[in-house]
């Protein structure tokens, strides 16, 4: 989660991050060659970046390939404190992304479900049942056209 104070990254740390964004399995030795540090120095920098929460190294799956046939973005309108609703959404296993916003919706939540019945149950029995949820609008994903994870060092 972002903090109010952002990390102060030098050019070498940004270059390491860019290398890992391209290939999260890239060896420290290979990265070291690219950025001009020793393998040990790269390993230490990566560990510091991980410990500080600046980055994560994770496997990203295609939900369709692992049995989750329905993904959607849900816009929520909330009365009162948005934080309580956002916090409740973060505890739901199906919810993988939650942001509070300024605009037509107070909160946007991305969900990944097994099928339409699972989405319907989640939406009607759990999300709409949260206190202070006034209205929802669901945007069912038909096709993923683009998804990148390289915004971190521009």
UniProtKB/TrEMBL annotation:
Pfam families documented for this protein: AsnC_trans_reg_3 (PF22482), HTH_AsnC-type (PF13404)
GO terms of molecular function: sequence-specific DNA binding
Domain annotation HTH asnC-type: ranges: 9-69
One example of a Gene Ontology biological process annotation: response to amino acid
SMART domains linked: HTH_ASNC (SM00344)
Top-level taxon of the source organism: Bacteria
GO cellular component: cytosol
UniProt keyword annotations, A-Z: DNA-binding, Transcription, Transcription regulation
InterPro entries, A to Z: AsnC-type_HTH_dom, Dimeric_a/b-barrel, PF0864-like_C, Tscrpt_reg_AsnC-like, WH-like_DNA-bd_sf, WH_DNA-bd_sf
Protein name (record): Transcriptional regulator, AsnC family
Lineage per the UniProt record: Bacteria, Bacillati, Actinomycetota, Actinomycetes, Micrococcales
